[in-house]
Amino acid sequence: MRTSEFYIKRLDWNEAEQDTCNIRNRVFAQEQGIPENLMTDESDLSAHHFLLYLTHQDNPVASARLLEDGKIGRVAVYKEFRGKQLGLALMRYVHDIARELNIKTTKLHAQKTSLNFYLKLGYIAEGESFEEAGIPHQAMSMELPSNQTPIEFTPDAALTKRPVTHQSEHYQSSLQAGYQPRALIPATETPLTEAILGESNKLVTIWQSNDIVQYIEAIIAQSSERVFIYSPTLPVEIYCQPAILNAISAMARRNPISHVQILVDDTAPLITQHHDLIQLQQRISSLINLRCTAKPYPVDSLGLILADDHGWLEFIDTNPIMLSGSFNNPGKVKLWRQTINHAWNHAEVPAEIRRFTL
Fold first, then answer.
1. In the chain, how many H helices and how many E strands?
2. Span 240-245, mean pLDDT?
């Protein structure tokens, strides 16, 4: 099931209490066995509360809160709606509100079972794990880029009410006060090649430089939710091409759940040369996640691009550059993701990138 249209409301405790308690009781008390007397505390009175609604439902399906000191907590999504990246959209919205409040660093206590979720958002573990309410937790924090402007589905400090990006008749009828992010909207770009993501099964091999750029641009431009790029050095003749940069930027901003992951072997020379893709990543770093491979966990590839759950392109030679892949091979993409997830989860956010962000 793909994510339905939804909106997020930012509320105070008086407005949020009943629905928030319903979600917490069902997720924390009923599912996890946490005592009901721990469902609320005195911090709720001054916290910013967030509830995520699907437009075809009257009751919210996810919640979170943000304290004035930057601590995010009580993040909960109903079980039947997990795995649809609603939690990701909710957290990105909370991060944008935090930036609006001039919070520089967000922090949280993550349940160990949710550790990978927060790592993918860019959080870094701090110290040893500990028990909280009888459940193993890990303290985590993340620096929020101070130079990042609100993107199209995030709040704008100059507006009390952000206009809706996707305005179907049904969506307009469901508008409520506060922020209304758009729903998942599939990519609608006209294909630049005969290959169509999710439809074209043909295995292609490309060696002409113009065709290589076109195919990379096309597979990224047709992606709706996620793009993964592994490149040891991000060659400038490929990844500094304006067409590819524009495709990556547009894809990352496409939906509340869209995101790009970039994995490289060394960021130092990329920063020294002011690489265009690194510059883009710094401008929208909550949407483009950059990491550096750890030496014990290399990627066995000359370069790789994965698009949604369907398409893949792999560099099979670098001198001359040759590319091979398919725009519709879910089985191959699944195998690749299983391989690169291990490398990604052990990869590091380079210190140079963190300093560059500041």
1. 11, 14
2. 92
Q: List where CATH 3.30.870.10 sits in the chain.
A: 204-357
Q: Which amino acid is at 137?
A: H
- Environment class of 150 (CB within 10 Å of its CB; exposed 0-12, middle 13-18, buried 19+): middle
Q: In the prediction, which pLDDT does 55 show? A: 74
pTM of the model: 0.55
DSSP type of residue 5: P
Q: What DSSP state is assigned to residue 133?
A: T
Domain span(s) for CATH 3.40.630.30 in the chain: 6-104+144-173
For domain 6-104+144-173, give the CATH superfamily.
Gcn5-related N-acetyltransferase (GNAT) (3.40.630.30)
The Cα 50–Cα 7 span in angstroms is 10
CB 134 within 8 A of CB 95: no
| Short-list 318, 288, 294, 286, CA closest to 304 | 318
Which tens digits make up the pLDDT trace of 65-111?
A: 999 999 999 999 999 988 888 888 899 889 888 988 889 999 999 99
Rg of the Cα atoms in the chain? 21
Task: Measure the CA–CA gap between 78 and 83, rounded to whole angstroms.
Answer: 10
- Condensed to tens digits (0 to 9), the pLDDT of residues 130-148 reads 988 888 999 999 988 764 5
Contact between 313 and 324 under an 8 Å Cβ cutoff? The reply is yes
Quickly list H helices, the chain.
13-24, 86-100, 115-121, 169-173, 209-221, 236-239, 242-252, 268-272, 276-283, 330-346, 351-357
In Å, what is the CA distance from 183 to each residue of 3, 100, 158, 166, 167? 7, 22, 23, 7, 10
What's residue 184's pLDDT? Answer: 43
Class of domain 204-357: alpha beta
The pairing of strands 259-264 and 288-292 is parallel
Cβ pair 11, 179 in contact under 8 A:
no
